[in-house]
Design goal:
Number of domains: 2
Shape: globular
Bound molecules: zinc ion
Distance between the termini: 50 Å
Largest sheet: 2 strands, antiparallel
Helix content: 55-70%
Number of helices: 11
Length: 232
């Protein structure tokens, strides 16, 4: 059994979290090879379409979270085109969900997106009915540009991302909401409001950035100590 098959199938939140880290087709293909070993590579055009579809899902998830009007009509229109079927054989040994959308052509990414869309639509419907949203986002901050660059987002995503950034007191208090040099981690969790960070790395990076703003000498001092250590 391949390593991919021992983990649970990918779902819509994990896919959004991963997609935020793809800077180009090469990053995506690396991810795809791990999730779906042995399946033929999608081409660049399929990748661009998949990214567009995921951006749509990302912006709708943000609307639900912030209590803005979600585009239910557009979600329904996409749902109408989906015909999920069980593809146990094709998905064996991969992390693809075995319910794939076989309505439209051979593109594995279209088939995968149909499956993810149905998962997302279930979440959206529950959120709209209950009026409470349990999709939380990591409160981690980064200085490097490992995630989707804030400056390169389209107008809609950027304005939603500004809202996510405005939730972080450090960015608000230091006038950094529009500063593309600091990113908020893109990881989502479902139903874990107390988990503020997705990982120890995120916790550590955020601690360092916070410390630096509270005490601007902190980093300089740390570097001095490091250099001293190297000399001794
Ligand atoms: Zn994080």
């Amino acid at each position: 059994m391949s390593r991919a098959a021992t983990k649970p199938p990918i779902d819509w939140t994990e896919t959004l979290n991963e997609a935020a880290l793809w800077h180009d087709f090469g990053d995506f293909i690396q991810w795809f090879h791990v999730q779906a070993p042995g399946l033929p590579d999608p081409d660049q055009q399929e990748y661009v379409e998949f990214q567009d579809n995921l951006s749509f899902m990302r912006s709708q998830a943000a609307c639900l979270y912030f209590g803005l009007e979600a585009d239910v009509e557009a979600i329904n229109a996409k749902l109408k085109t989906v015909a999920l079927t069980i593809n146990a054989e094709r998905c064996a040994g991969t992390r693809l969900p075995a319910l794939l959308d076989m309505a439209d052509g051979e593109s594995i990414l279209r088939q995968l997106f149909g499956g993810l869309l149905v998962q997302f639509a279930g979440y959206a419907a529950d959120t709209l009915v209950s009026g409470c949203c349990n999709l939380y986002r990591c409160q981690g901050l980064y200085r490097d540009q490992q995630g989707m660059p804030f400056s390169a987002m389209d107008v809609q995503l950027k304005s939603l991302e500004r809202r996510y950034r405005s939730e972080i007191a450090l960015l608000q208090d230091n006038d950094l909401v529009d500063d593309a040099g600091i990113q908020r981690c893109f990881d989502f969790f479902i139903g874990r409001p107390k988990a503020r960070f997705c990982s120890d790395t995120c916790r550590f990076n955020t601690f360092q950035i916070t410390k630096q703003f509270n005490d601007p000498d902190y980093l300089a001092e740390k570097q001095r100590r490091y250099r001293k250590k190297l000399r001794t």
